[in-house]
Every structure is written in C-alpha cells, then in structure tokens.
C-alpha cells in the first residue's frame, strides 16, 4: 500500500516560503448561531430562521419533516461579521465578490486602545463629543509600512463582543486623519472588530467610508479576534459567498507567521 501523500500549500512572500499546512489558522468571524445571540447595531433584528412550508411538507425534522430546509433572515451590516465594498455607499455594477480576493493576501494584525476624542487633535466630519476614537497616532505606533490588508483589534477585547448592543454602548470609530493614514499605507482591505469605521450617527454622511473607498476595496466589520491570537504579520483569506450585493456575511481566516 502506498503512503498517503501529504498536502502542502506553499505561499512565497518576500523571498521566503511558508507552508500553510504547518501554521495554525484563526477564524476571525462570529459564528452566527441564529439563536438571537449576536451583536446589535442600529436597532438590528436578530438573525432568524423559518422552515419552508408547503402542502404536506415542513422543512424541519424536529417538527416531523423529512429534512431541514430553512429560510434565513439576517441584517448583513448590523448583526455579524461581514465584508462590504464601495456599492455600500455608491450604487455601481461591481459588488463585494468582485472586490474580495479569492486567494491569500499579506496582512498585519494590530491591537489599539481607542482614546477619548479630547486626547487627540485629530478631526472628524461631525463634531466630536465624548467619543472614543482610533486616531492616526495610535496607528502610527503600530504600523509604518504599506501592506495590502490591515486587521485592527480594539482593546479591551473579550467575548462580550459577541452579544454587544452598540446602540447602548457606542463603539469607537476612526478619525479623519487615521483613515487618511490608512490610505497613505495603500491598504486595500481593512478589517475591524467594531460595527463601523464611522460614528454610528454621522448624519448619514459615512465620511470615512467615502474616504477609504477612493482607493480601498473592502471593509470588513464586526470581526471577532480571539485573544489567543497575538498581533502579527500573516496571510489572510476573506471568504464571502457569491452574492451580488454591496456586502455579504464573511469569514476572514488568518494565518499568523
Ligand atoms: Zn457594514
């Protein structure tokens, strides 16, 4: 009997070769359990399931059906990990699958402690009040070189984020200067664990989204980044279904090296 052949998935980057089969990967998404336990933003309704019903058929084995067949309802932007493209703020033919790379991209994971807006001289396109912000300086301390993709974990970080109500506990967001710095670093794919890179209510302007999408391709929001994963460089794959929409639920998988 011949021995089973071992699979290698080799990525060559910066004159080095990495075998992904030898690296532990991390799923940076929330599992959607469709049980009402998900983050809430903008008064979102929990994700829900309903069995398909027809004459003499119910798509629910627990109710006597021969198989499970569900219709899922979800608020893509406000209840779980998702990835969006410029179509989120500007109607266009290209949708999220057109902007999301199918393969791996070099990526850097950093962690930041958002600061009070009164601590920074950075600006924002609507008045800052008692907000927590991610300023340019916080990013400069953690990243200085251009890269395709940047993943940002906000601190403190724990599993409370899986059920956080962001209407009651407003999330931090980026200053104008921070987004401009992200553009200077030529970052094409930005991933964050907060529900939006903008303030929840910026009078519908979504100013940071507009700035980022001048050069950027995708923004992924509401990630969950486990504490067992340390800040590092690595390779990222953003998995999205083939949906012809501005955004889709997503599952970023990170291979730190
Ligand atoms: Zn969104």
Beta strand %: 25-35%
> Quick one: biggest sheet?
9 strands, mixed
Compute the number of structural domains.
1
Low-confidence stretches: none
Strand order of the largest sheet: 3-18-16-9-12-14-15-8-17
Helix content: under 10%
The average pLDDT score comes to 96
- Rg, Å, rounded: 20 Å
CATH architecture: 3-Layer(bba) Sandwich
| Bound chemical compounds | zinc ion
Question: What is the fourth-level CATH superfamily?
Answer: Putative cyclase
Number of strands: 18
Overall geometric form:
globular
Q: Report how far apart the termini are.
A: 36 Å
SS field, number of helical segments: 4
Walk me through the structure.
Helix content is 9%, strand content 28%. The protein is globular and about 65 Å long. It has one domain: Putative cyclase (Glucose Oxidase, domain 1). The chain has a nine-stranded mixed beta sheet. The protein has a three-stranded mixed beta sheet with strand order 10-11-13. The chain has a two-stranded antiparallel sheet with strand order 1-2. The chain contains four helices and 18 strands. Strand 5 (53-54) and strand 6 form a beta hairpin. It has 257 residues and is mainly beta. Zinc ion (ZN) is lined by residues 77, 82, 84, 221, 247.
